[in-house]
Amino acid sequence: MNIILITGASSGLGQEFALQIDKSFFNIDEIWLLARREERLKDLAKKMYHKTRILPMDVTDQDHMRLLELLLEEEKPRLCMLINCAGYGLLGAVADLDVKEQLGMLDTNCRALTQLTRLCLPYMRKNSRIINLASSAAFVPQPGFAVYAATKSYVLSFSTALREELRPRGIWVTAVCPGPVRTEFFDIAERYGKILGIKKFIMAEAKSVVALALKDSYLKKTVSVYGLPMKAFRAVTKLLPHQMIIKITSSLK
């Protein structure tokens, strides 16, 4: 049985990945949709043509992850694609944010992504794909978004290294590094602070980000960056000292 597993599928980019894959992939038996909000997953499944499996799970809950592990062991599917979209961010200074919420970002964005990837690797074969949702925040430290940016730096580094480890098996890993995207992400992120005004002018649409990510994954690219502004930002972070970029961005607040 050929399957695709998408985490964070109840909203945002995870949901968009599910919808686009449903329309363009024809050799898939099932699409597994994993997220905490079961009703949202059911609503999404009703819009899809492929057979779906609803997995109402929290990626940070070890009991849930054990259930997923047992399901994989029982079904023994051929996992054609794993898309790790579960994650969240909070704007605000480290000293001001609740410590549990900050540690929650680490658990969701880093530990859970790593655990899920490890659980799925035994079921992936040659030409399977892994897409990990990182962020342009991974390119440089970001005061006021410190923990989130650090977690996404982890995702980018992990994905790049994992790609080389899996190269002999013909499994390809792509880290998706968008800038601000018009999704529910900022409903959570802006509870304690506001994004730079300029970011609202360069906010991308989820459909465009996902379409490019799927194309770049097909082309076996290491990183997928949507839009000229974010591509330029990535280039600048490679050319200029990070401390200089931090001072410039801080002066814009």
Present the secondary structure layout.
Layout: E1 2-7, H1 12-24, E2 30-35, H2 38-46, E3 51-56, H3 62-75, E4 78-84, H4 99-120, E5 129-133, H5 146-166, E6 172-176, H6 185-189, H7 197-201, H8 206-218, E7 223-224, H9 228-239, H10 242-251
Parallel strand pairs: 1-2, 1-4, 2-3, 4-5, 5-6, 6-7
Explain how this protein is built.
The structure is a single chain. This protein has helices at 12-24, 38-46, 62-75, 99-120, 146-166, 185-189, 197-201, 206-218, 228-239, 242-251, and strands spanning 2-7, 30-35, 51-56, 78-84, 129-133, 172-176, 223-224. By secondary structure, it is α/β, with parallel strands linked by helices. A 7-stranded parallel sheet has the order 3-2-1-4-5-6-7, with helices on both faces. The N and C termini lie far apart (51 Å). The mean pLDDT is 91.
Question: What average pLDDT do the residues reach?
Answer: 91
The tally of helices reads 10
- Class of secondary structure makeup: alpha/beta
Low-pLDDT segments, ≥5 res: none
Strand order across the largest sheet: 3-2-1-4-5-6-7
Helix content: 40-55%
Overall shape = globular
- β-strand percent reads 5-15%
- Please count the beta strands (DSSP E, at least 2 residues each): 7
Radius of gyration: 18 Å
* Termini Cα gap: 51 Å
Largest sheet: 7 strands, parallel
N to C succession of SSEs: EHEHEHEHEHEHHHEHH
